[in-house]
Amino acid sequence: MTGDRPIDFWFDFASGYAYFAALEIEDLGRRVGRPVRWRPYTLGTAFKATGARGLSSTPLKRDYARTDWHRIARLRGVPFALPDHHPSVALAATRVFYLIDTQDPEAAKRFARALFDAYFTRGIDSGNLEHVLAVAAVLGLDTDALAADAVAPDIKQKVKLISEQAVALGVFGSPFFLVDGEPFWGWDRMAMMEKWIGRGGW
Amino acid sequence: MTGDRPIDFWFDFASGYAYFAALEIEDLGRRVGRPVRWRPYTLGTAFKATGARGLSSTPLKRDYARTDWHRIARLRGVPFALPDHHPSVALAATRVFYLIDTQDPEAAKRFARALFDAYFTRGIDSGNLEHVLAVAAVLGLDTDALAADAVAPDIKQKVKLISEQAVALGVFGSPFFLVDGEPFWGWDRMAMMEKWIGRGGW
Fold it and tell me: What's this model's pTM, rounded to 2 decimal places?
């Protein structure tokens, strides 16, 4: 009966580690027989709670993360190029994601993967609504409707509430996974999470 | 010719993740044919550079880390109990370590493992010199000499310089590994480091 319970995949669209997680999480979900719910949020909301700063604003960690992202990309054989404007505040991408998600969660996942790819391989700005809509357009989505809805108060409030909900659930990083109430923080904990689900915990 | 080049294992004696790393690093070194240099330092020195705070002083991360440490202990089948006084500022332990290390690095490793065990399973205070010397006494070390030397200016200065050296090398966490100039941060990256050494990088 656990097969229906999702893995919640919390992330920020400007997170390098989330880019790698996004490339792997659906395969992991299939292997363990769990659906994956993609839950982008604004990591800045968590930083207010933890007092932390983003990796790219933190001396030493910043340089380590850049080395590490390129190392992971080579290990996995996937492209990776950090945009000059990294880290974007990816509010526009997050709002458009939830507009699509309300209609069609699978389309929202396709959009999220395309957005990550566009940001981390071609350097689009996920904080720029026009750039974000261009990604949606390639997927055949109705960008006129998205353009109007993305600046409406409703979606702004929704993204704010979802980000506050993340923090209330104990989410403070990106990627961050919750499955059956169990938290796993970081791309490098996905293997442990898979083992946890497979064994039913330990 | 790479067999002589060590894995530098940087850690703070009050770090939960370092406790788990200390239980595994020598086996890893043997598997890849590399000696391990144990390099305790004061993580607070790195925090001054990064602006970060300790896990146990950070909302949300604090609770996550406690859940995670117990989860790792159950996974590995090792004891773990967080002392009430966690996190200790482990200066006394670090100073005594380097006093022993100067004479006998292998004895210093035995001391470090015994210290971790005493702190994370029996709740001794690694910031209290008497507690630290009691651990050294069980190993048959000359605690009278250590007691005198541990409060001398020389060792205080040495530990300060080593901690500053760590930060100069880009070390900012615990555990943190450097091997052939390549940095690996965290207990959960030891498997990646082992793969890296085995392949000669990628």
Answer: 0.95
Q: How many interchain CB pairs under 8 A, A with B?
A: 64
Long-range contacts of B164-170 (CB under 8 A, 24+ apart): B164/B45, B166/B10, B166/B39, B166/B41, B166/B45, B166/B46, B167/A60, B167/B45, B167/B46, B167/B49, B170/A60, B170/A63, B170/A64
ipTM, interface predicted TM-score of the complex: 0.94
E strand or H helix at B37, and its extent?
strand B36-40
Q: From the CA of A100, how many Å to the nearest CA of chain B?
A: 30
CA distance A134 to A140: 10
pLDDT tens-digit series, residues A19-53 = 999 999 999 999 999 999 999 999 999 999 998 88
Residues of A in contact with B202 (CB under 8 A): 71, 74-75
CB contact under 8 A, B50 and A59: yes
Q: How far from chain centre, in Å, is Cα B40?
A: 5
Q: Give tens-digit pLDDT for B143-192.
A: 999 999 999 999 999 999 999 999 999 999 999 999 999 999 999 999 99
Structure letter (DSSP) for residue B6: P
Closest CA to B146 of B135, B161, B158: B135
Give the chain A residue nearest B176 (alpha carbons): A64
Query: Exposure pattern of B65-85 as b/e (b: 16+ CB <10 Å)?
Result: beebbebbbeeeeeebebbee
